[in-house]
Design goal:
By secondary structure, the chain is of the alpha/beta class. It folds into two domains: 35 residues, no CATH class; 202 residues, P-loop containing nucleotide triphosphate hydrolases (Rossmann fold), CATH 3.40.50. Strands 4-5-6-3-7 form a five-stranded parallel beta sheet, with helices on both faces. It has a two-stranded antiparallel sheet with strand order 1-2. α6 links the parallel β5 and β6. α1 packs antiparallel against α3 and α6 packs parallel to α7. The termini are far apart. Zinc ion binds next to α1.
Length: 254
């Protein structure tokens, strides 16, 4: 029996995507559901769901203090790093094989925040991102060695290898065992060979990294990532707390 084609969504004919010029876009009918799924899979910390480039505040970075290496003020450095992060998103949307970012800086300088600004910008464009906090992720892998655990090491590793954009947050100074070093190498090597960009946040400079992760991994990262830096004189968390307390005092009656 011949059936007339009827669609829930005449705009995309239920395919979920519509052509707009040269690029295919998610249709509104599918967008909300897909974005919800993508956000859940991405695994960003809940506190970072609101991290956006618009909220990345440059006033935390001193216009007086200077970075010894580059001679730039902290403010200039942060402006450059912010621009590099925005450029990463723009570049990625044009061609997913862009260079990644290697974000260094002390604790509370906005590294995780900025990486999450990138993640949210991509998620809002319907792109897949995977956010992993390195120490937690290594713990999860170790937990798979427990026979009771349903998730396998292979599944966790494959997810990190194959994510279109991977954020490795907090690649810090841990006790890297031979096993961990090999694990990280195999992931980064795979990603570089497949031109999949990685964003790394860490307090170890790219120059010092080989001390912890060895030559092999470090040279892979040198090749695959643009190094960016954020410097602050005071942890931004502390600054924000002080501002909050000050506001509370000013608003208090009497
Ligand atoms: N440039 C910024 N503008 C606004 N808030 C920021 C900025 N950088 C960091 N924060 C806030 O400060 C806190 C610490 O930042 P975070 O990115 O976690 O630091 P890091 O990863 O460098 O240790 C977070 O709660 C974040 O929301
Ligand atoms: Mg961090
Ligand atoms: Zn539709």
């Amino acid at each position: 029996m011949a059936q007339e084609a009827t669609y829930h969504c005449p705009l995309c004919q239920d395919r979920g995507i519509v052509a707009s010029g040269e690029v295919a876009r998610l249709c509104g009918c599918r967008r909300e559901r897909v974005l919800f799924q993508l956000r859940r899979q991405a695994g960003l910390p809940p506190a970072m769901h609101g991290a956006t480039f618009e909220r990345f505040d440059l006033r935390y970075y001193s216009r007086a203090r200077r970075d010894h290496d580059s001679g730039l003020t902290y403010y200039e450095l942060a402006s450059r790093t912010l621009a590099a992060a925005r450029e990463f998103v723009r570049g990625y949307l044009k061609d997913p094989h862009v260079d990644g970012l290697y974000l260094t800086g002390p604790v509370g300088s906005g590294k995780t925040f900025l990486a999450c600004c990138v993640a949210n910008a991509l998620l809002n464009e319907g792109r897949e991102v995977l956010f992993l906090t390195v120490p937690d992720w290594l713990d999860r892998i170790r937990a798979t060695f427990d026979a009771q655990n349903q998730t396998t090491e292979q599944e966790l590793t494959d997810a990190a290898r194959e994510a279109p954009v991977l954020i490795l947050d907090d690649l810090g100074v841990h006790n890297y065992t031979e096993w961990t070093i090999n694990k990280l190498y195999s992931i980064l090597n795979y990603r570089l060979n497949h031109l999949l960009p990685t964003i790394i946040t860490t307090n170890i400079s790219l120059e010092d990294l080989s001390e912890y992760l060895g030559e092999r991994t470090t040279s892979r990262l040198f090749a695959a990532c643009r190094a960016c830096r954020l410097l602050v004189d005071v942890d931004i968390r502390i600054r924000q707390r002080q501002e909050k307390e000050l506001r509370a005092r000013q608003e208090a009656p009497g």
